[in-house]
Each structure stands twice: as structure tokens, then as C-alpha cells.
Amino acid sequence: MDFIIIIYIIFGLLPSLVWLSFYLKEDLHPEPKKMILKIFLLGALITIPVFFVQIGLSKLLDLSNLDSTTTSIIYWFLIIALSEEFFKYFVFRTKVLNSPHLDEPVDAMLYMVVTALGFAAVENILYLFSPAGPMSFDQTVTRALIMTLVRFIGATFLHTLCSAVIGYFLAFSFYKAKRKYMPLIIGILIAVSLHGLYDFVLMTGNDYTKIAVPITIILTLAVIVFSGFSKLKKMASVCRVK
Description:
The protein is an all-alpha fold and 242 residues long. It has nine helices and no strands. The chain has one domain. The radius of gyration is 18 Å and the shape is globular.
């Protein structure tokens, strides 16, 4: 039993660690490792309040007696997507925004991604621990490997992209003298809408839409995010976050 726990933890962490290594290369001026670790761990810990919020809101939703389609939309867009994106931003807001390490625009995207990766790591581990019945060692490793690969290119990547979008618009809000919250609101709306649509279609769509729509969402977000990294890195030499 102990070896299963170790396997699940390793495979659960693996997608986040691989993506973390990838995203850190986007920063021309590397952030302190202690700060990265701190935000990663806080992103992991924030899953606890998110879990209780989602459970509580789900129970309220069950009492609403709405039709199944409306219930599903509210659940995936508001209870799941909004709560997760809000709490990931909350970590940034409370622990990064006033930090001296936030000294260039691209850092907003980077730290939002690190938070998301901590969150996704716990989520991945919990998915691996979901009941699957008795299995041999080889079957356990195979199952963990398949789930890890699927979540690496799916849910984990989605979490990083949605948080990066928020970070991108947040970076531009630093330079707004008036209505500086508007870019942030736009970023959150985009992230929540696409995150919610991804989950909603994946859970309620047909065989075709379950593949086509999530792939389209991932590719759209990827284009926004990686073009965003390029734009913010160009701003870094003339604009400093204050």
C-alpha cells in the first residue's frame, strides 16, 4: 500500500514540475527559488478552502430545483471555474502583489502560473487516489502514467493558461491611472469563461465536442498566453512594476 501512495504522489506532482520548469524559462530574470516554492505551496494549500467552498455551494445548488442544464452551467462556470480562478488570484493578491520580487510585468504571469501549478499538483494527486479497485503494481503504474499524461496536456495545462491570462491582464492594470481594475476583470472573465466551458463540454458534450472544444480552448489560451509573455518581456526594459 505504501508504494501506491508514493507512486501517486510522484505522478501527481510530475505534470506540475515539468510545466514549472518550462514556464520558468520564460523569465529573463529568474525569481528567487524560495519565493517560487512558497507560492507553489500556497497554491497547493488553497485547494483546502476551495474544496469546502465548492462543497457548500454545490449543496445549495442541489436545493435550488433548477433544470439539469442550468444546474450544470452554474456548477461548472460559477462553482468550479470561478472559485478556482478567484482563489488562485487570491494567493497572488495577498502574497505577491506587494512583494519586492514583483519587479517586472512578466512576473505577474509567472507567479500566477506557479500558484496554478501548486493547485493542479494537489488536484492531480487526488484524482490518482480516486477508487479504481484492486490492481497489481504494473496496473497501478500504467493507470497513473495514463492519468498523468492526460492531465499534463489537459487539466494542468489549462490551469496554468487560465491563471497566466489573469496575470497578463493584471500586469497591464499596473500602468492604468484610471479604471485600473478593468483589465483584471476582463482577464478573470476570460479565464473563468474558458475554464468553465472546458469543464462543461468535457462533462456534458458528445464524443466529438468532448475532443474538439477542449482542444480549441487549450490552443486559444496558449496563443494568448505565449504572445502575452512575449509582449510583457519587451515591456520589461522600459516598464517596471511599482
